[in-house]
Automatic annotation (TrEMBL):
Subcellular location: Cytoplasmic vesicle, COPII-coated vesicle membrane; Endoplasmic reticulum membrane; Golgi apparatus membrane
Family (UniProt): Belongs to the WD repeat SCAP family.
Protein name per the record: Sterol regulatory element-binding protein cleavage-activating protein
Organism of provenance: Fusarium mexicanum
GO BP term, pick one: SREBP signaling pathway
Recorded coiled-coil stretches: none
Job description of the protein: Escort protein required for cholesterol as well as lipid homeostasis. Regulates export of the SCAP-SREBP complex from the endoplasmic reticulum to the Golgi upon low cholesterol, thereby regulating the processing of sterol regulatory element-binding proteins (SREBPs) SREBF1/SREBP1 and SREBF2/SREBP2. At high sterol concentrations, formation of a ternary complex with INSIG (INSIG1 or INSIG2) leads to mask the ER export signal in SCAP, promoting retention of the complex in the endoplasmic reticulum.
PANTHER family (UniProt xref): STEROL REGULATORY ELEMENT-BINDING PROTEIN CLEAVAGE-ACTIVATING PROTEIN
GO molecular function: sterol binding
Mode of membrane association: Multi-pass membrane protein
TM region(s), chain numbering: 237-253, 265-289, 369-392, 439-457
Amino acid sequence: MLTYPIPYLFTSDYVNGASNLPHHAWTVAQPLHYGASIRPDVMMRSIWVHGSYMQALEQDLLVSALELQNELLGSTENFRPIRARHVVRSLPEPGVDLSTTQRDAFHAINGLNNQSWFFHSPLQYWDCLKENMLVDPDILATVNDKKTQSTSVNVTLRHSIVFSGKRFEERRLVAADALVITLIYLRDSPVGQQWERKAGLLPDKVSNKWDIYPSDGRSTSSQLYEFQFRPISRKDTAILAIAYVLTSIYFLMSLSKLRAFKSKFGLIVTVVSQIAFSVMSSFTVCAIFRLDLSRIPRAAYPLVVLSMSLENIFRLINAVILTPPEDSTSSRIGNAFGETVHTAITSSLQNVFLLLMLSRWVSPGVSAFCLFAAVAIVFDLFYLSTFFLSVLSVDVRRTELSDALAKASMRHNRRGSDFKPRGTWELVLQGKATLSTRIAGTIIMLGFVLIAQWHFFEEDTVFNFLSRLHRGYGALESNGSSQSPLDSIHQARSPKSWLRLQDHETAQEIISIIKPTAHSYVARVFEPVVFVMKGSDRMPHLKEPTLLPALYDFINHQLTRFVVILLVVIASVRLLTTFLLWEDESDDDDRHSDTDPTLDVKSFTGGHRLDVLMLAAAADGHVVSVGLDRTIQVWDAPHDIFPYTIVDGCRSDDVPFPVLAMTIDDNSKWLAILSPSKIVLWNIKDKVWGPPLSVNLQGQKSEAFFFGSSDTNSHIPRLVLVRRNGTLTEFMPEAGEGADYGICKSPLTCVKPLIGKRSKQAAPLIAIITASRRGCVHAATRETLSWNSRSVHLEGIEQDGVHQVVPLSSLGLFLIAGASRIHLVDMEDYNLVYTFSTEPMAQRSLQSAFFTRPWSQSGLHGLAWFTLCYTGAESGDCIVQTFVPPGEHDLIYCQSSVVPEARGWCSWESVKETRRHIENPGSWSVLSDGCVVGIRQKSTRVPGVETNGRRKADGLRHRSPRKEPGRDLFGRWEIWTAPQSGQLRTDETRPLFQDNERAGHLIVTDIGPMVRVGQRSVAFSFGNVVKLVTVGGHERFENDMVDKSLEHLNIGSRRRKPGTLVRPRAWT
């Protein structure tokens, strides 16, 4: 909004009510301290001619001012000093006035020496001719049309140097308070001596017409001023270029560490836009309040703002990374902003305070820069809280950034410990972190202010420079009497403030006259002699506008257009945001705010008449259910629309019942259904049948059924079937063929697929991990033409009572679960990595969750936390064991027991373990963020307690108590969740049924099969109804959000006791 007025508030032309744009130069008009041993280059004397207040452009005043000018300089009519070029310079007798020819011969246009002089006067608009003034029909038009007129020495007669106390409208001068006639001469100039002598005689000649200040017409007080117009040098350019390059490198390196591959360009554009908006908005505000920013090179302004802005930007991004990705967008952005906003405000206030203090001590040009930087810091914080926060929210919501955040380089917690000063300094001292950019931004800001101040006083010694900073700029100017005679005439602008305006193009033009090879000059400026016409009314009747005149012109002529454009921009942004989030809006994603429940339940009813016995879930959120009524339904969980039916309960040759297993491929396209005699394929997207496959199970139960790898020339991935007798059959659906392989000679009790990346080979690792009744463990890997099975030999594994294996595909590891120990094994060489001690564990109840993040210095990945979850064999509790590194920023090196020498790694032996028990868990599952969610019936009695404090197993897992008269059979069911130990969320429960949700449900004593859906949802059957529980807010269902190394074993099963129902999984 504040960027639109810039073209109307700034000008690169002559001063006409607008503010000056910064140059590629250092410009300033500054007083030099008293006692300076500097010989001035020129002297400046002037007279100010006043009439009534702000009526200096009246004809009679102009004519009277011409008389005063001629008295001081001699006749100036048709002033053409070039005509005396060939006149020999000669001095008259002392006390005798110079003739016109003698005077013009000393003019600077005729050659520069120590006797040269020149002047500028508003009367030169009329060639100093009284007749021209009297016949001029429009004085104001002449003044505005001739503002670019030059004198004989090419000094432009800008309004700023020939008038004082100007009033502008429509970029045109409409009034002035004083006519300023200025004489500039070198030290031996006879014209200067004549001016001084004749000024002392004027009171006797004109006192009847003028009030003169000082009354004797002699100006004795003076001040040394330095006027600079120093173009930016190659050295300055090189320093600024290096600063920009270093800042850009820091920015890009910091951005690359975020691993936000899809959002890098967008974040760069957003940051650059925020800096541009902050700079332009600050320019607008400074222009409105008449703050002159033209004294510092324009290239410096964005750099300082950028250096101070990056700290807040990256602090906010890192805080978003710290938030759990399973939370809603609103929660993530709100929590991150809440953690960082107080630091950003404190840092900004600190810098603003420092800048305001510095602005009182430094020179005017640097003071304006300090005020600009202070305003820019405020705007930067504003745009960070609005513009950048909104763009970041859109990026997260569209998952362009959330993919990277889910694999971020920080631990999932909300403790905000990265921002605690004590922890930061500890890390700095340990060499694990660099100094905060909060310090760096302040250092850069203060450094540039000092460099800029030194630039204006580069001839000074260090002592003088520091003493000037200590005294402040105000001490450099003469401290006149608090009561001045000029106070009674109410000047619209004081001589000192008027003088500070003469530091731009005029200074450059004068430098080119008196010191052509220099970039500055020193002038001894005498106090002006003020003439006030008698009978003038010097009382201000109208208050002069305090803000920039161009602002009022903008309001008068551009406000309507500005409002229309503003409304159009707001509407366009709204439409663009709606377009970017159209998928979210169609799915009601915009309503998953902080007010939404963290435990949400959806019920899918009407698809089955009898109990649902089997479920399978796809990566995109589709859920397939098989019921006792011989109906197979496909539910669309993301859109919550009515399902479509694959088989409607009638006898069908396409799908022979009973259904033994189902699985869905990684692309959510193909559904494979296993029956005793064949395998049928269903295309979920096209809703057509695929080629059938014949199968002979030979009376053996299937232990695993999943899709394997795809051939480059095949549209349907291979299917893998593992039977209980240890036989693996691999099917190629399009060829209609299958091949058998033996992987274990003993009956199998647990089979899990492991599909991941090899560390040393390009081909993906496809393996099957098995556990048998004898306790042996085998790993069968897919080779080019066959499967190669290998026994996993670990010391003492035969006595562990192995009952389950759990793959950790993305790590290239797998777990072997025994009765009270869990072995972590490397898939590459089958070596033992570590052994975890557990409490006695129920059969096949183990689940695992973990979170990895990269170690930027080596490219390796480590664990930020690792969770094991299982059902206690004795207590029936859900036991959660979580392992974290001892150092807050450390990582667990999980690949082997040999830890890298680099800092930041820890071994499994040094991890910290936390353990908790969850009583009466019912049926439960571990989600991707380590959160545990379960469904249970409320306990109806107080559990017994043994002497060791543990609950008795009797009754603890008994979730089918005897019915009591009038008992609510639906109201006793509830959902519970327990967050991962690194999160600040508390345990939560809610009823499974709302008051209006009970219709259409069958009464059951146990829930049916449970499968994982998406990142933080589980689906299960309650009789004939499929229910979806989502933890932590809104769930996204997208194929690319689910790692292909995740769960591939979605085998449905008939309803079992809760202790055997739990499906072990490993999620990344």
